[in-house]
Amino acid sequence: MVTGASSGIGEAFCRNLAKRGSNLILVARSADKLEHLAETLSCQHNVDLSCIPIDLAKVNSSQDLFDQVQDAGLSVDVLINNAGFGYWGNFEFASLQDYQNMVNLNVRSMVSLSYLFLPSMLEKKCGGIINVGSVVGLQPVPYGSVYVGTKAFVLQYSESLWGEYRRKGITVTALCPGTTKTNFFNVSIPDQQLRESRMLNMPKGHSPDFVAEVGLNQFLRGKSQAIPGKVNYLVAQGSQLLLLLARSLAIRITASLFDPKKD
Ligand SMILES: NC(=O)c1ccc[n+]([C@@H]2O[C@H](COP(=O)([O-])OP(=O)(O)OC[C@H]3O[C@@H](n4cnc5c(N)ncnc54)[C@H](OP(=O)(O)O)[C@@H]3O)[C@@H](O)[C@H]2O)c1
């Protein structure tokens, strides 16, 4: 089951898994996009596809999704908690409702879905969960506080579960992509002018297909964490070292890099 299957990294996971012969449950809000993807993949590959349109930022939606999967007689061997969104800009400029939705989607639904689907994996003693975090979850990033906080949670949460379940045949992997060419920045930087000027300063970014491939391969190797791309990996290690040696300096550097007033 892939959440956030209607675009970007989630859609890439679906293409990759269908090619590998996996049956899939596609989850996101956009029913039309899910149906279109399911039709395309079922024409190309001999797999069963089910679409469940649902808003996972709504309280109780995870239980609702679990119930729909049960009622349809489906079972989930691998859960990919990928649906998520961010906000980049001054903390006080976004609405409280947006932040609550972000925490509900990026954190709450991830915990609920893992909790609900894990018992059947434990019964079979196989399967697992890929939780999509971000490289920004490895460090504090001013002007992205809530999003970065949710992604820091994803990393600590996933690796803790990895340590808890790895001897029980279950792998939990935190996939931490850097910049990836998806719809993500249209949502997370709503101001078009700011987004366009920011995109010029951003690293070019990986394709969602590359990110999904690395995530799946590391998951299948039983790894706790996957950071796609050598540069992302090295930057992540460098930032960890700087945080260890000079934490406030590291935060001041990211503040100057991400300050929207600079554009
Ligand atoms: N792109 C990057 O640079 C980047 C970097 C690091 C991490 N990530 C992470 O990668 C994950 C996927 O993002 P992406 O880059 O592929 O962005 P994207 O193209 O915007 O995809 C986001 C997906 O999440 C779904 N979604 C959003 N809100 C939802 C809700 N309330 N309920 C259910 N589904 C919802 C969207 O579908 P609907 O709109 O149809 O619901 C869409 O399928 C996110 O967790 C993001 O934080 C992205």
Explain what you see.
There is one protein chain. It contains 10 helices and 7 strands. The protein has 263 residues and is of the alpha/beta class. It has a single domain, classed as 3-Layer(aba) Sandwich (Rossmann fold), CATH 3.40.50. Helix 1 (8-19) links the parallel strand 1 and strand 2 (24-28). The longest helix has 29 residues, at 96-124. Bound molecules: NADP nicotinamide-adenine-dinucleotide phosphate (NAP). NADP nicotinamide-adenine-dinucleotide phosphate is lined by residues 3-10, 28-30, 33, 55-57, 82-86, 105, 132, 134, 177, 179-180, 182-184, 187, 208. NADP nicotinamide-adenine-dinucleotide phosphate (NAP) binds next to helix 1 and helix 6.
Q: What CATH architecture would you give?
A: 3-Layer(aba) Sandwich
CATH topology: Rossmann fold
The succession of helices and strands, N to C, reads EHEHEHEHEHEHHHEHH
Number of helices: 10
Name the bound molecules.
NADP nicotinamide-adenine-dinucleotide phosphate
Keywords:
single chain; 263 residues; alpha/beta; Rossmann fold; 4-stranded parallel β-sheet; 54% helix; binds NADP nicotinamide-adenine-dinucleotide phosphate
Brief summary of the model shown:
This protein has 263 residues and is α/β, with parallel strands linked by helices.
In terms of topology, how is this protein built?
Blueprint: E1 2-3, H1 8-19, E2 24-28, H2 31-44, E3 49-53, H3 61-71, E4 78-81, H4 96-124, E5 128-132, H5 145-165, E6 171-175, H6 184-188, H7 192-201, H8 208-220, E7 225-226, H9 230-245, H10 247-258
